[in-house]
Amino acid sequence: MSSTSSPSPSLLSDNNNSNNNNRNNDNYDVIDFNSMDLEWKHTENTNSDNVRAVQMASECRLILSGGVDTTAILDAASTLNIIFDVAITCVIGDTSPDELYAKYAAYKHSTHIKKHIIVQMTHDTLIDIYLPKTIQTLEVWDGMTIRNSLVIAAAFEEASKQNLTDVLVGDGADELFGGYTFTWGKPKMCPIEWKNKRDTMCKQWTFATSALAKSYGLSAHGPYMDQELMVDWALNETHRIDCIRDDTPLIQLLLGQPYAHHTTGKVLLREAFTTGSSWRRKDPIEVGSGATIIGKDIYYNNPNGTTPKHLCITDEEFEIAQQELKEKENIIIPSKEYLTNIRLYQKIFGGFIHSTKTRYPKNDIQGCIGCCFEIGNATFCKLCGSYPAQHNSNITPYISK
Predict the structure, then answer these.
(1) The dihedral formed by the CA atoms of 279, 281, 284 and 289, expressed in degrees to the nearest 10
(2) CB-based burial of residue 21 (10 Å sphere; 0-12 exposed, 13-18 middle, 19+ buried)?
(3) In the chain, what are the domains?
(4) For 281-295, how does the pLDDT look when each residue is reduced to its tens digit (9 = 90+)?
């Protein structure tokens, strides 16, 4: 994940007279990208007749950093002659695909980023330092939410250390422009059906970013969530044909590696701002940062003796705890990560207590099928990750992982 200072007068400058191509205040060694024969603008995927993409680039004036969405903001910022004081990228372990993409983006936009900081840490450190505060702030134990939020929290802490007061985040682009695989739909599906589903999701969206930012004394700004400039425009003017391209695009998994044909979303955004990341695969924050392994039981099994003892959970311990929580509390625990999260949740809040949600008895249809906390009309429980969370659903429930 990348984060930058927001476009406030104290953090950004409209003056770009200095040349920072030899920027020497990054916290990592210089990479000779010129020798790597990389494609900055991968043009094979671009439809030159896409008028919407041109309008988006010239009128919406987005400013943000990181991944497909955030490098688009860097590209837009460069045309506006905006200079960012700091760009922050979080790298967990040694399998992060984000790292090289982020460094390449900072290299290409070196005149518009004063300093690029790589926050690098182990998975153990990520859990030990950021898990308690993240659970306390968000009041959830859902694994998918927590994994992504831990990385965001690490970036926000670094922003706070850099004495920043505002950060830009990429929330909203995937929802608006079909970034997630489950939003692609089918090639021949009814365009109205796709748009209705997209519009409904965007009208109901919530993000953890603001609460996390506030916990670090920051204000988070999401340009893709700007109601007038972005949300209203996207919902009124864009359709599946603008956002999703089936089978034909050439998509890249790792910088410098070959491209392969694959269906993808966010085509409008990819075409409007063609950068080194424009045609990379959409990866969740946990995948891009390298944090994914903490969601796997193998991490807590400690097969190589590398996981700290206090984070290890044996199969026997897990099975006993899983059964007890189901029988006594009617709570579903699908993995060792969830057990780690829920134990910490209980410790922080003194049990199964929530500041705004009521907990109902077992089988009460007002409660989530996976945790018994009130669910309302929602199909997904943000607290425990159950889907569908309703008791009367015809779909077999599962917990997001």
Answers:
(1) -80
(2) exposed
(3) 2-289 (3.40.50.620), 296-350 (no CATH), 354-401 (no CATH)
(4) 999 999 999 999 999
